[in-house]
Amino acid sequence: MAILLGVNIDHVATLRQARLGDEPDPLFAAHEAHLGGAEIITVHLREDRRHIQEHDVQRLAGHVHGRLNLEMGATDEMVAIALSLRKGYPGPQMVTLVPENRRELTTEGGLDVAGQLERMREVIARLKAAPGGMTVAAFIEADARQVQATAQVGFDACELHTGAYAHAFARAGGDFAIGGLKAEFDRLADAAHRVRAAGRRLHAGHALNYLNVRPVAGLPGMAELHIGHAIISRGVFVGLRSAVREMKALMGG
Ligand code: PXP
What we know:
single chain, 253 residues, alpha/beta, TIM Barrel, binds pyridoxine-5'-phosphate
């Protein structure tokens, strides 16, 4: 099965927020990403609304081709927004729950599912009761305890945090014989195996780029990769459609 690519277009909204006006338009970015081969569009509606706004999610929910994946904190406010969107629009078809820390530049660390089992059960049940249902994923560290907890509370999918692997890759210049790269990759592979053994769908993302993506795409059973910064950055030079196409080719799609 080909691996699906989810393109995170938050950075397009970051650029728009830097000036008055509505350029560049995240919906236009979503169409370009789709034309380049992305099956999924991801946006993170942050508590502080620093990039994506509610009206963006509404427009995307009505017009994205393929699937819209809404990344959000597990707060009552966000659950209510996700549910109200599904009453009027086809999307978001998927929610990925992430931890949220107001001061962080981007999502740091995974969600602590094991530390809040009851809260996670409750949030999942509310999201799954959306009209037409919803796929609910958890963004977690490559950690056996967290993987087990996601299965226990009923997440459909685990998105494994690839940040530590990506940083080890950069430090080692991609040489698996150097430093802790092999150890970080083995940790990811072990967690990936556990996700599949627990009957969950396997996703991965964070800090993946054109150099480090291949080994992750090669993990058995990988279903989806979620990539933002590298694709949007390359898109500045070659166009978003081409940047997505190049990433899909590296993923073997
Ligand atoms: N997956 C999740 C859950 C994220 O929070 C992010 C960052 O917004 C990404 C994937 C994409 O990370 P990057 O922009 O480093 O590719």
